[in-house]
Amino acid sequence: MEITTQRRASARRRAAAKATAAKATKAVATAGALATTLLYAGTGTAHAAENGAPITPYGVFDFGAGILPPPTPNGTFATRFAYYSAHTLKDAAGNRVPNDFAVDVASWSVAYIRMTNAKLFGANVGFGAVVPFLGMSAHTTVPTPGGAIPLSANPVGIGDIDVQPLILAWSSRNLFVNVALQVQAPTGAYRSTRLINPGSNHWTLSPIVGATYITPGGFELSTSIEIDQHTTNRATDYRSGTEFRQEFAAGRHIGPFTVGIGGYVYRQLSDDRGPNVDGNRSSVNALGPAISYVEPGRPAFWLHVYKEFGAKNRSEGYQIALRAAISF
C-alpha cells in the first residue's frame, strides 16, 4: 500500500514537471511569436510586412526625383549612406506600445545607372542596379507568464540586391519624368529565427514613377511613387501585403544648391498573409529639411534629415541620409 502511494506521488510529480516544462516551452514560443509580430510591425527600414525586412528603403528620392543622368560612355556611379533609429513602436490605432523596444539600421548602398541614346516612346532607355550593405541592431522585451524575456539581434551583411532592367527617361525645359521596373532578389542574409534580417527571403517587383518640375523662377517640386508586390517567404509561409510609398521634396534653387523640405508617405494597401496573421497593415509619414548640390561636371550631393510621425502598426523614428553621384 505504501509503495503504491509512493509510486502514485512520484507519477504526479513527474506529470507536474512535464506540465511545467510544457508551459515554459509554450511561454518561450509565445514570446518569440510576439517579438516577431512586434518586429513585423516595423523595425525601421521597411514596414509592417514580415520581419521588418529592408525590402526597399524609405527616403531615397528627394530633389531631382524625376531627373536621371544623361547618356555617358561609362554610366553613373552613386552611393548612399543612411541611418535609421527608432525607440517607439506604435499599434494599429497609433498608440505607443508599452514595451522596451529599439531598432537601429546603418546602411551603405552602391548603385550604377547606365542611360543610353536608344529611344523608346520618345524616352532615353537605361538600366541600373543597387547593392546594399546593412548593419542592424534590434532588441525588445516580451512579457510571458514566467516573466519578461529579452530578445535581440545584431546582424551585419549584404541586403537584397535591386536590379532595374528597364528605365525610361523623358526631359523637357521644365519637366522631367522617368519610369522604371525594379526587381529585388532575395540575396540578403536571412534566418527565420532571427529577430531582424538584412534580407527578406522573397522576391519583390516594383514599378516606379518619378517627376520633377522646375519653374522659370527656380522653385522645384519633385516626387517619386513606388508600388511593391511581394512573393511568399517559403521559410515562413508569409506573404507581405502590397505597399505604396510616395517620396517628395519642395524647395528653391540658389545657384548650384536646392534648399527646402522633403519627406515620404507610406501605406500598406493590402493585408499580410500567413500563419496566425490578422491583417498587419501599417502606415507612416515623414518630414524634414533637405538640401542638394548639383553642378555640371562635378559630383552631385543630396542630404536630408526626416522625422517620422503618425505611425500605425510599426516603428516611429528618424532618418538621416546622404547620397552622392558622379557620371563618367
Secondary structure elements and their pairing?
Layout: H1 2-40, E1 76-90, E2 101-120, E3 123-142, E4 149-153, E5 156-158, E6 162-171, E7 175-184, E8 204-214, E9 219-230, E10 243-254, E11 257-268, E12 283-293, E13 300-312, E14 314-327
Antiparallel strand pairs: 1-2, 1-14, 2-3, 3-4, 3-5, 3-6, 6-7, 7-8, 8-9, 9-10, 10-11, 11-12, 12-13, 13-14
Description:
The radius of gyration is 24 Å and the shape is globular. It has a 12-stranded antiparallel β-barrel with strand order 1-2-3-6-7-8-9-10-11-12-13-14. It is 12% helix and 51% strand. The chain is mainly beta and 328 residues long.
Task: Give me a quick take on this structure.
The chain is mainly β and 328 residues long. It has one helix at residues 2-40; strands at 76-90, 101-120, 123-142, 149-153, 156-158, 162-171, 175-184, 204-214, 219-230, 243-254, 257-268, 283-293, 300-312, 314-327.
Mean of all residue-level pLDDT scores:
85
Low-pLDDT parts are 1-48
**C-alpha Rg (nearest Å):** 24 Å
Number of strands: 14
Q: Encode the helix/strand succession as letters.
A: HEEEEEEEEEEEEEE
CATH class: Mainly Beta
Judged by helices, strands and strand pairing, the structural class is mainly beta
Distance between the termini: 94 Å
Order of strands across the biggest sheet? 1-2-3-6-7-8-9-10-11-12-13-14
Largest sheet: 12 strands, antiparallel, barrel
The number of helical segments is: 1
